[in-house]
Write a structure and sequence with these properties.
The termini are far apart. The protein contains 6 helices and 9 strands, in the order ααβαβββααβββββα. The protein has 2 domains: 124 residues, 2-Layer Sandwich (60s Ribosomal Protein L30, Chain: A), CATH 3.30.1330; 38 residues, 2-Layer Sandwich (Wheat Germ Agglutinin (Isolectin 2), domain 1). Strand 3 and strand 4 form a beta hairpin. It has 178 residues and is α+β, with helices and mostly antiparallel strands. It has a 5-stranded mixed sheet, with helices on one face. A two-stranded antiparallel sheet has the order 6-7. Bound molecules: zinc ion (2 copies).
Length: 178
């Protein structure tokens, strides 16, 4: 794998990125970048690991085929819409503790992860997953406070005017104070 490139993309090498590379190693056995155009990744954390997935699997936040669920778990689900195949990759129990106890520093953890078979750290199973709906595009409407164009479905209504979420929150705070 193009380790140097992903390190450049992410900014440094770290245990999280190394774990992400192992997730990618597993995912690549099931899915091919480019072939599975419709590959979707659901990630249950926003750690360094996710950058390996964005970089190597081309599942990116901007394209809408990277879905973040804020569960704080090292669980990664990949779904091919075309082929109807889904796999769930989950970090095995006690792994984080093992890293802490067994190794002296981050570098040792990184090396241990990179040198191991991914099966040492992750459990993999095929799952039935209904793919999330494709990202919908809605027209933009200007916020009546800051004027910035905002996707229609994200606007909030306050006293009959449409506000973007940050403006809505500012107005709410003002009201609570007065
Ligand atoms: Zn990192
Ligand atoms: Zn606004």
């Amino acid at each position: 794998m193009e380790t140097e490139e992903v390190v450049r993309f992410h900014g440094h090498m770290c245990p999280g990125l190394a774990l992400g590379m192992k997730v990618v190693e597993i995912a690549k056995r099931y899915f091919e970048r480019g072939v599975d155009e419709e590959l979707v990744a659901i990630v249950e954390n926003n750690s360094c690991a996710v950058d390996a997935i964005q970089y190597f699997m081309s599942c990116t936040f901007g394209k809408g085929n990277l879905i973040f669920r804020d569960y704080g778990k090292h669980v990664y689900t990949f779904i091919s819409r075309d082929r109807g195949v889904a796999i769930r990759i989950a970090l095995k129990k006690n792994m984080i503790e093992e890293f802490r106890e067994k190794f002296r520093d981050r570098e040792e953890v990184v090396n241990a992860i990179l040198e191991s078979e991914p099966a040492k750290y992750f459990e993999v199973r095929e799952v039935d997953v209904v793919p999330p709906e494709e990202a919908m595009i809605f027209p933009s409407v200007p916020c009546s406070r800051c004027g910035e164009p905002t996707m229609e479905t994200r606007l909030r209504v306050l006293d009959g005017s449409l506000l973007c979420i940050p403006c809505f929150e500012v107005e709410l705070k003002k009201r609570r104070k007065s």
